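Duplicate of #3305? Posting structure anyway:
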């Protein structure tokens, strides 16, 4: 099957991007290595999560893939945004995101970071300790806070509960502290950790937060009206990950127990973007070593595959050239460092220099953590399907 890969970041196009068929055309046009971002997949992921969590306002966390095309595709879908840094404020601002669709969720900020977000118009912030709450005294008439609560989660790719969040039993005291300073706390947030295995982690955290919401009212403090259930929704790097709708079933059940005065929001990052980006690298050279062919690619651990180090994610890698005859091979990155190996043990056809290697599921925590180590340039990001089909049909 051959698909005409009309690829332009500028014009509205609708096509189904097929990475293997399109790889050679794209590399002929843009060179290698490439990261191909398919905004149709971004939209599909957003809609799938919105369907699995109806009545939850999804705030895309920019951290895994801070790209303007992702932001504008999601804005058109009606999404909200979760920001953590001034650079992320700049990005949503440049795309024209209304500031009331954003929250700033970094639990530890400089006063200048708070001012920066406020100048843009973002006025919801996350705190998890007294030192941080005290920074908001100067801004108390302009801000609303969420208190981040920590729920340990050993069973996760990245357990964030050690680094951020107050103990659940300390939440009411923190809210009371803010109240005494005249600072409005409007709700709670948590983040169970990235690529979570089971929705039960959220369900437990939600019911614990429901208790805190009740205690706050019982203590005579202003009622909390917001619960932020964070990110962490898993993607199917491997077959043992639950489909999102099934994964979210216990979350839906737990949310149904909350009072309906509570607005529920979430901060998905990885789930929205991981399947939306495909890497295309090319073979720079090759050598036979210890019975295996080593293929040296123009992208590696210090580039787009940085997630293999930082994120422990699993990507699906294959060659564009297909053959029934496969040989044991090693895929190495371009730098002169020995750890720069993408795959120690992969079966591939006999490849020539210049042949292409395609890896999928590379949208989250890949290009954002890439480096220019050894002066190997990062893969360029090419955007396909930037505008939704219906939009382009209307404008055509
Ligand atoms: C990183 C992060 C997210 C996104 O997490 P994913 O696992 O990518 O969904 C959401 N919220 C906060 C506060 C984060 O730090």
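Output from current build:
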């Amino acid at each position: 099957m051959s698909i005409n890969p009309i690829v332009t970041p500028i014009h509205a196009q609708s096509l189904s991007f097929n990475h293997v068929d399109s790889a050679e055309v794209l590399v002929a046009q843009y060179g290698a290595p490439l990261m191909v971002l398919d905004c149709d997949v971004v939209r599909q992921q957003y809609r799938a999560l919105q369907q699995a969590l109806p009545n939850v306002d999804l705030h895309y966390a920019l951290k895994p893939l801070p790209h303007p095309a992702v932001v504008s595709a999601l804005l058109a879908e009606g999404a909200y945004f979760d920001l953590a840094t001034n650079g992320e404020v700049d990005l949503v601002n440049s795309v024209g995101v209304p500031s009331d669709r954003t929250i700033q969720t970094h639990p530890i900020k400089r006063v200048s970071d708070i001012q920066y977000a406020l100048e843009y118009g973002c006025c919801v912030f996350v705190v998890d300790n007294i030192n941080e709450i005290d920074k908001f005294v100067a801004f108390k008439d302009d801000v609303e806070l969420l208190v981040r609560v920590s729920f340990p989660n050993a069973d996760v790719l990245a357990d964030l509960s050690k680094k951020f969040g107050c103990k659940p039993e300390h939440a009411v005291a923190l809210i009371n502290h803010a109240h005494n300073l005249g600072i409005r706390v409007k709700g709670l947030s948590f983040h169970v950790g990235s690529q979570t295995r089971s929705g039960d982690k959220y369900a437990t955290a939600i019911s614990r937060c429901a208790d805190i919401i009740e205690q706050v009212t019982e203590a005579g403090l202003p009622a909390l009206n917001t619960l932020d259930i964070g990110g962490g929704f898993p993607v199917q790097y491997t077959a043992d990950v639950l489909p999102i709708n099934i994964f979210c079933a216990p979350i839906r059940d737990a949310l149904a127990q909350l009072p309906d005065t509570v607005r529920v929001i979430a901060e998905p990052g990885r789930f929205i973007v991981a399947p939306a980006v495909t890497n295309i690298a090319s073979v720079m050279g090759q050598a036979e070593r210890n019975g295996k062919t080593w293929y040296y690619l123009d992208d590696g651990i210090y580039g787009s595959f940085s997630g293999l180090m930082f994120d422990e994610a699993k990507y699906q890698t294959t060659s564009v050239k297909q053959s029934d005859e496969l040989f044991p091979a090693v895929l190495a990155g371009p730098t002169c460092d020995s750890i720069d190996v993408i795959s120690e043990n992969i079966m591939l056809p006999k490849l020539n220099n210049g042949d292409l290697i395609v890896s999928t599921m590379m949208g989250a925590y890949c290009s954002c953590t890439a480096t220019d180590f050894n002066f190997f340039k990062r893969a360029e990001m090419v955007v396909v399907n930037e505008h939704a089909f219906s939009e382009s049909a209307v404008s055509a």
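Confirmed duplicate; merging threads. Residues 61, 63-64, 82, 105, 191, 194, 230-233, 267-271, 364 surround pyridoxal-5'-phosphate (CB under 6 Å). The chain has two domains: 8-37+274-395, 40-272.
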